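Job type: complex structure
Entries:
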Amino acid sequence: MTAVMPPGTATAAAAAPVPPAPTRPVLARDWRRLARMAAVGAVAQIFIALSNMPVRLDERVVVKPVLSLGYLTLLIVPFAAGHRVGHQIKREGTPVHAAGAHEVAGGAACGALAAGGLSLLAVLLANFDLREPLVNWSPMLAELLAFGNSTSFAVVIWLLIGAAVGASGGLMRLLGPRTRRAAVTIAITVAGVAVMEPLVVDLAEGMGLEALTDRLYARRGGLEWVSALVLAAVAGILAVLGRGRLREARNRIAVQEGAKRTRTNFGLILLTGAALVILPLFAGKLTNELLANVGLFVLLALGLNIVVGLAGILDLGYVAFFAVGSYTAAVLTAATSPRIHPEMPWLVALIFVVVITGLVGLFIGAPVIRMRGDYLAIVTLGFGEIIRLLFLSDWLSGTFGGSQGITKIPGAGIFGLTSVAGTDPRRVFYLVLAFCAIAIYVSWRLERSRLGRAWMAVREDETVAEAMGINTVNVKLLAFVVGAILGSFSGAIFSAKVGSVFPNSFLILVSIVILVVVIFGGMGSIVGVIAGSAVLIGVLGGPKQPGLLAEFSEFKLLIYGALLIWMMLARPEGLIPSVRRSRELHQEEMAQDAWLKGQVEDDTANGDTATAPAT
Amino acid sequence: MLRTGRPRRRTSRTGVDWFLTFLRVALLTLVIVGLLAFIWQEIDTDNPFARWANPDATGLTGAQFRGLIVSGVAQGCMYGLIALGYSMVYGVLGFINFAHGEVFMVGAMTGMITSNKLADAGLWESNFIGSLVFIVVVSMIVCTLTAVVMERVAYRPLRGSPRLIPLITSIGVSFFIQNASIVLLGPAAKAYPDVPDWVKDKHTFMQIEGARILVVVVAAVSMAVLWYLVEHTKGGKAMRAVAEDAEIAALMGINVNRTIVRVFAVGGAMAGLAGILWGILFRSVIHTTGFLPGIKAFSAAVVGGIGHLGGAMAGGITIGVAESVGPLLILEPLGVSGVSQLRDAVAFAVLIGVLLLRPAGIFGERLPAEDRT
Amino acid sequence: MTATTASAVTRPLLETRKLSVDFGGLHALDQLDLEVHEGEIVSVIGPNGAGKTTLFNAITATVALSDGDICFEGASLLGLDPNRVTARGIARTFQNVRLFANMTVLENVMVSQHCRTRQHAFGALFYTPSFRREEAEIRERAEKILSFFGSRLMGYRFDQPAFTLSYANRRRLEIARAMATQPKLILLDEPVAGMNPVESAELTGLIGRLRDEWGFAIVVIEHHMDVVREVSDRVVVLDHGTKIAEGDYEEVSNDPTVIEAYLGHGTETT
């Protein structure tokens, strides 16, 4: 992929200054494309409106008087449709045409039609009552769509807004790559600062910079429009000045080899680690809570990453190990545990947690490990559900408390020095950080060992791996158990943090969320998985934990679902892919690149050299 | 087919093999001991084992037992109808369409909405059979569309990618549809309108509720129709050809894309039908309605042997009866309390058990050529 | 059957007795007896569908036997998992090259040493000296094996994913991978299929060197008669799962049953 970049950017740069390449004539298929995009956009628009997202998110202001998150959700679709409609499919042999006025016109038309969905909806809202099945069919929505005016106003205004936004989407195609990058940077910065408001405020308080945040944000949330402009200007200037310096630096590191590379990596890791240790000291409760939640999911995701990313086993019942870890820790440490209550110190209990989860991992793993990949997925899901049902059942409620769960679990005591409980999220975060460090180290070391290579081989081709002398069953089982143990750490911390465990904290959907995190970040990539948790859990929130956009909590699972589909279709290797995974998914393209670079040689080229030194 | 990879006589057994053998034996022993305990309890309620294992156990009367079987069969027929979709898609494309259970949920939801509208108009009471046919048709159409759109948007672009990719995508689709139902229709359970007495009440014939008879009859009829379609029409032959080998089928002039769409459409229609049957049986539907029946239906497809139409039905009934009878028949005599909570666990245990004892299912599987080894 | 070579006195390295494999009524292999001695290169030829690849699959335990026995170094291989067979000392290549396409060339060879190395999770986690030593050995051995093929799998190519290799190099890497399992017997399934005459001649030489320098016994399935003539000490002809002829190349190529089985193809190339 990266190798395609040079020729692509080169032609784009060449096309921009001197003779403008001829713009492409509008073809019949472009009209069809426009109609299709517009129809899809309109449906999406109506869906978003009826999902109540705009009404619910209207309270969250992004830029003070102008824009709320609710309206933002309604603008995304026309923008995307307007941008997308001008997309030229680049095929070998077809000339790349310069974007022209009709990209903008097409974008405007497409955007208008997509937003026209809202116009239609406004009319329908005024004339029909479908409140019966559709819970959000409300006058509130009508009012929001009409900006408080009449229905006809709503019809016109949305067509206009759609056209404008769609046109700006199309306009993006006219910009040179550098300007476009700057525009994207500005948009991301403003949106990011607005979204991270609670975090920024919290941090600023910790560092005594309230004056700054007071100026930045409006009193009841959202950026002041002045500060938004200032922010945009600063971001724009930085983007123009920076001009790919970051990328250059990254490339410089990427080409380093051997010991130098190791040193750079080590330095980077040390720097990140130090930042993570220092950051919570300045942060308030809210930030630390968030960090702790993200950390818990990083831990879970790292565990699942070993199973899914390295060994290629799709485990949908991963939550079972989280549950077993939590319950074991709870039973062993809590005085209120119904039957067995040894009240062990947390660290001692942790040893039992590891042993028990390891055994459960073996127990679940052994029957499933020989199954075909997809059967395995469903059966592990079944096991995950069975384990939850057992914790929930009256049968075992004597030990696990049934639906009442186990409450009043003491915090995690560390050598009698401190006790880590949910009341102090900072300590929880440090504890989580320590375990994350362990998990990262384990993943990193195992990946680069005989075992890691065997996992890869099994993932690539199980039959051949076995023919090459790898005991696939044992190797996969080991991955399963290692993943299970890492998940149980998370569980043990979770029970100490929350102070109680209930069966319905361990629904299958937790498994799915962890899977989304791993896939979003990039299967098999440690950095990717961490980034994935930070973005998803941090911003949207976990299954039960609120994220920065707390208003999104109703919609986050919907978004997770959509994200999973979209990632698989558009970027299956994830946000920050592991080198190997992206190879796997883009084999053909990469082979072509290699061929272009002349790295695939003809066999005749050095056919003789082989026999020469042989004798 | 799953295990062609291994010599039949195994002398070298690893730890895992011993463990698996142990599990198989343990599972069978559990079932047999549970059954024997049940029989003993039926003969003599005061036998020492029953008092030792579960002092409160009362055993079952003949009528209770029959009731459980009947409700199991009715539910099983529904699973069977859903399982057809899993089985056909797996047979043709070689991946589990995890979201198929959600199509079923969409069917139940559509039925709920339409029937309530009909009830508002007064048609539901005045012409129940007509209304029922109407909601079945509407639901089948909606589900067919859902399934076809799903295929077009999410699965077609992924054809030919590593086999876990479409599975993961289908998990995303399932998640999306479930949550779309929450945000559009609300998170609360929604009720079907009241049904006539002859559906609700037990009939003189075997003391079975009308709804259950209805379910079994409808399932049997649609099964027969589907069997005819697949075995004796041109489209059905195309489906079987694509299931056998898509590439060769394409070379023989079969439109593979259209055939695959057709497979999804038929599966969707069956799920829509099953959704209505669910509505008639339980008269309540919620966004999670599709999840567990979906998984169980997939288990049914596996139990019957993936790729077999009749197998899907047989598997469905097996799972239905097992989860309805299993807890009381096997677990309760063994002293497990609150067994009805473990229904779902039993259904999963059946799946695991079948995969342990006979991985190819009861009737053996029929898979696309490249998935056989 | 009664080999007249001197090594017949000693026990054969590989011996199949009445080997039979059925695929639902079709006898892919029918009562096949075959011997391979140490340091011997045996070619297995026969028309398509004669059961040649099935023979390899049966030996490496990827297909179920319906009857018969396979002995390697005097001990039966029956009931072993494929990985245990490899650990006993039988390695193979695949007819339709099956590399670990996304692993690098070096990794492909390193991972194939799995059954000859011991270090487990513990060593990797604590980075023990023995772990480091073993890793170094694995790498060294991998490089040595790759150098056997001249310069074409060396240098920058170590770190290239296997799928970027040319077809002939993939075949070579498959052989390297088989060598890395440190076998006593290598089963080569059509090693020169799809190669041009120059490459195929070169690989023929390599097969000879595999025996002479590394001491492997080799069984080759091959359709190219010039390769068969060049490398084999003994030729076994299969048809419909049974052995119809055995002997040196000249004997076999003049055998009327063989010519009949091939419908004249066998003589064409001589």
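Summary: The beta strands of chain C are 14-23, 26-36, 41-45, 67-72, 75-76, 90-92, 185-189, 217-221, 234-239, 242-247. DSSP finds eleven helices and ten strands in chain C.
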